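NAD-dependent succinate-semialdehyde dehydrogenase
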Amino acid sequence: MTVIDLSAQATPLELARPELLRSQNFIDGQWCNAQDGKRHPVSNPATGEVFADVPDSSAADAADAADAAYAAFEGWRATPARERSKLLKRWHALVLANTEDLARIMSHEQGKPLAEARGEVAYGASYIEWFAEEAVRTYGDIIPSPPGKKMMMVKEPVGVVAAITPWNFPLAMIARKIAPALAVGCTVVAKPAEDTPLTALALVKLIEEAGFPVGVVNIVAASREHTPATVDAWLKDERVRKITFTGSTAVGKHLARESASTLKKLSLELGGNAPFIVFDDADVDAAVAGLMVSKFRNGGQTCVCPNRVYVQAGIYQRFSEKLVAAVAALKVGPAHAAGVQIGPMINARAVDKIARHVADAVKLGGSVLTGGKRLTEGAEGAHYFAPTVIGDASPAMELADEETFGPVVPLFKFETEDEVVQAANDTPFGLAAYFFSENLARVARVADRLQTGIVGINEGAISSEMAPFGGVKESGYGREGGRYGLDDYIQTKYLCQGNL
Ligand code: NAD
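Tokens:
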């Protein structure tokens, strides 16, 4: 592993357009502070240094945002779809035009390498473009009707949508919620993750510049401490008709419980525990490359990251040697340093969990093939962990059950197809799974049996604006992306005209 000077101070956050760095909420077309004036600090995970602050909003601010979104709803849903689409395209163009600034803000507050942050801007923007195109195609149905009647189904926006997003993809997660909501005529209140509010606020600044009507999108920032009460104002508000959430399963369940009293529609994109299976008949080089792509993006802090890697006995040794060589060659360092592939983890809590999983694995007989430790030299205030491969992993280890959310690959050896499919499905989660095999019949069998919302077959990069992203079991429900991505923001209405 190459470690690039961890003591290097982050370069100052220099932006071509400094006005994109916002420090206020955006409610009813106005940038404003929290009503009680409270603030919440934002720090750089590469240094621990606080470099900005944002409002620490309360229920009162959330209520103001809901008032604004509710007041804007009738006008926005009546806006012709083509007009909504044009505004989305303008937003899309502005996001792309400001890629460098958005990427810098993102890397500064989240820690991901700049090259990855630029990639995330393009990825998030692709959802805005996609839903701008879908906005004009929300057709209904004419139902073959009995004589004297005309029966029809029309699609309507659900109403005010509350979007709550995590820190790991500060731009893409919120873009792929706001874009479909706006496309169908919903209005939005949003609350970004406490560690990464600045990217979301910059994105909303570009919504303002694109010229969307006042109140159509509103955003409030809040600390971890105040978030439950702030979001609770939306959960209890019967005018908020939908919650779209990406984050942990525990918080997803809380939102499902608490929104039951107003029976809101819910989309929950929750945690995963993805299996990655390599069969004896796989192309080993392609499998290693696929694993590197899917595991180490964002330092392993990705919900679709392989968490358990199963390798068939016949190629276990060959695969593990090639993998260890690739992992050992990764470059770790601060986001802005040239060539960095793995940045700091988001916070102390995150790196503590990774260290706990590795220590537990070693205690239960796992062998550290590379990495396995915190990188602390020169990294005071930051949270680096060495990219790690653990051999001889077993199901009793904590990392077999729980998302590690870091740059750690545990290798489990298996013998038969039946055994590995059973092991892969032996988890409450069901977001993504991957497998590599050159055997056509096996590909069909295994794809059919894996209990996940997404399956990568001889492919590690599965996310795309063109396809439905989402999970089953305790990874949640609802889909983002593709032509299916609008459905979660739509309600159907049946019209029955008689006496014809
Ligand atoms: P988290 O659940 O702790 O936080 C997510 C969001 O929920 C944040 O905005 C947070 O402020 C908010 N939140 C926290 N407590 C809340 C409460 N009581 N009421 C309302 N809102 C609350 O998750 P995280 O640690 O930020 O993100 C990591 C998790 O997200 C992982 O489990 C990961 O797998 C999951 N994730 C899933 C997907 C997906 O598409 N399925 C994508 C990215 C991340």
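The radius of gyration is 23 Å.
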